[in-house]
Automatic annotation (TrEMBL):
Its cofactor is heme b. This is Heme A synthase. Heme binds at residues 212, 274. InterPro entries: COX15/CtaA_fam (IPR003780), COX15/CtaA_HemeA_synthase (IPR050450), HemeA_Synthase_type1 (IPR023755). Keywords: Cell membrane, Disulfide bond, Heme biosynthesis, Iron, Membrane, Metal-binding, Oxidoreductase, Transmembrane, Transmembrane helix. The chain crosses the membrane at residues 7-26, 63-80, 92-113, 119-140, 161-178, 210-228, 240-263, 269-293. Catalyzes the conversion of heme O to heme A by two successive hydroxylations of the methyl group at C8. The first hydroxylation forms heme I, the second hydroxylation results in an unstable dihydroxymethyl group, which spontaneously dehydrates, resulting in the formyl group of heme A. It is a multi-pass membrane protein. It is found in: Cell membrane; Membrane. Interacts with CtaB. It catalyses: Fe(II)-heme o + 2 A + H2O = Fe(II)-heme a + 2 AH2.
């Protein structure tokens, strides 16, 4: 039964990753209106006849999201009943269910009523939190509950990890805001400059894009510092050092893929890779925050 639980949690994690990517496809292809303002049906039908491409993309996203919502709820109940004594499992299970329902309701509201770009940008963030919660449940399923790994770091470095994790979420939001405001090419086909300069008019698409770039650069510097600090002072704790090695790798790949989005003129597959890498980075820092939280 334990093995089946582990396999199920892994499958659900991969499914959540698929939902994130499909949501990105909907945004990148402008398929959010593929069913008009009809929800949960699509133009009054479960499967619309003679659908256009954007309708197929939107319906597919809804169908997969609905099934994953059910899988997440089952996993949360299973995890809660299997390890009722573990407080972190209860928190993760509740978080996974709450945020996948919240992002579903937000998606429905975006279809029925028009939403501002600022509100729509939070949709990806909520999905990411649900994914990270499911991922951590999957990782913890391989732990001995009586001997959990506890990272022994200084209170200052622990706070640093918490703030880094929170800042990463803010950077994710700025990236989502770039997509939902149509600012992906706000700086033109240039990188690292923005329309030939390092400044932009406040409120313009260029300023939104530039804000995300600056936030991403700060994130990169912060992770480099955290990686160096962990390597220097906590080399005996392989999970911590390996965790920050992966975080450093992902943030480098994230920067490269971000530049490639500009150079490739919004290539869909490059953009999906960008979203995939940020999901890996978010999951990595989520786990690091978890193991330093333990007492």
């Amino acid at each position: 039964m334990k093995r089946f639980y582990q396999i199920y949690s892994i499958i659900t994690s991969l499914g959540m990753l698929l939902v994130l990517l499909m949501g990105a496809v909907v945004t990148k292809t402008g398929s959010g209106d593929g069913c008009g303002n009809s929800w949960p049906l699509c133009y009054g039908e479960i499967l619309p006849t003679a659908p256009k491409l954007e309708t197929i993309i939107e319906v597919s996203h809804r169908f997969v999201s609905a099934w994953l919502g059910l899988l997440v709820i089952i996993l949360a109940i299973w995890a809660w009943r299997r390890e009722p004594h573990r407080r972190e499992i209860k928190i993760l299970a509740g978080s996974a269910v709450f945020f996948i329902i919240l992002q579903g309701l937000l998606g429905a509201a975006a279809v029925i009523w028009s939403q501002s770009s600022a509100v729509l940008a939070s949709h990806f963030g909520f999905s990411l939190v649900s994914f990270a919660s499911v991922l951590l449940i999957a990782i913890l399923s391989f732990e001995d509950p009586d001997r959990p790994f506890i990272a022994k770091v200084s209170p200052a470095f622990k706070k640093n990890i918490y703030w880094l994790f929170a800042y990463l979420y803010a950077v994710v939001y700025t990236g989502a805001l770039v997509r939902h405001t149509g600012s992906s090419m706000g700086c033109g086909p240039e990188f690292p400059l923005c329309n030939g300069t390092i400044f932009a008019t406040i409120g313009s698409q260029a300023s939104i894009h530039l804000l995300h770039r600056i936030a991403a650069i700060v994130l990169f510097i912060w992770i480099v510092y955290a990686w160096y600090h962990a390597r220097k002072y906590y080399s005996d704790q392989k999970v911590v050092t390996k965790g920050f090695q992966f975080a450093l790798l992902f943030v480098i790949l994230q920067g490269v893929s971000g530049a490639l989005i500009v150079y490739s003129n919004l290539n869909l597959f490059v953009a999906l890779g960008h979203g995939l890498i940020i999901s890996f980075l978010f999951g990595t820092l989520s786990y690091l925050a978890l193991i330093v939280y333990r007492k």
